[in-house]
Design brief:
This protein is mostly helical. The protein has a single domain, classed as Cytochrome Bc1 Complex, Chain D, domain 2 (Orthogonal Bundle), CATH 1.10.760. Helices cover 45% and strands 3% of the residues. It has helices at 5-23, 28-31, 39-49, 88-101, 114-124; strands spanning 79-80, 84-85. A two-stranded antiparallel ribbon has the order 1-2. Helix 3 (39-49) crosses helix 5 and helix 4 packs across helix 5 (114-124). The longest helix is centred in the N-terminal third of the chain and has 19 residues, at 5-23. It is elongated and about 70 Å long. The chain binds heme C (HEC). Residues 46, 49-51, 53-55, 67-69, 71, 74, 77, 80-82, 95, 102, 105-108, 110, 112, 120, 124 line the site of heme C.
């Protein structure tokens, strides 16, 4: 007499579903993959508009401002400003127009065009603890 038939059947039916759900959450490297953007151009833009006046940013030794959070391990973070999902499209929007996404934030809108903002985001995703 088999008592586990129903259980095994359910397991077999659910397994592909579980695999599918797991596949929807790729590792951070893939989530932050920006093949069309140029991290080196991003660093140049970061320097030009002066993000380091308020942030510690690897690659720039000066001025290492402290008004904003350090971006030293930004690529490892799950959230932007503690409330937005850390995804390429959201980050590219945030770095050029933070107050549009987080009303009342002290992070100002920055003079970057859309391409520069994507390059900046790509650079920020290279910043990891390793
Ligand atoms: C006038 C100071 C100032 C400047 C200039 C500035 N920021 Fe910020 N930034 C902030 C502050 C303050 C926060 C925290 C905002 C919040 O939590 O609402 C912040 C938050 C951020 C965050 C989210 C950090 C986290 O830990 O979630 C990123 C990313 C960021 N800034 C990138 C940039 C980039 C890139 C530039 C240049 C294009 C820039 N910032 C220019 C002040 C600044």
């Amino acid at each position: 007499m088999r008592h586990d038939g129903g259980f095994l059947f359910a397991l077999r039916a659910l397994l592909p579903l579980v695999t599918l759900v797991a596949a929807c959450k790729p590792p951070p490297d893939e989530r932050q993959h920006m093949p069309q953007a140029d991290p080196a151009a991003g660093l140049a833009a970061i320097e030009r508009v002066g993000c380091a006046a308020c942030h510690a940013i690897p690659g720039l030794n000066w001025p290492k401002g402290a008004l904003g959070p350090s971006l030293e391990k930004f690529g490892d973070q799950g959230m932007i400003a503690g409330r937005l999902p850390n995804r390429p499209d959201v980050l590219a929007h945030f770095v050029r127009a933070a107050p549009e996404l987080v009303p009342g934030t002290t992070m100002p809108a920055m003079p970057l065009n859309e391409k520069e903002a994507r390059d900046v985001a790509a650079y920020l995703y290279t910043l990891r603890a390793k």
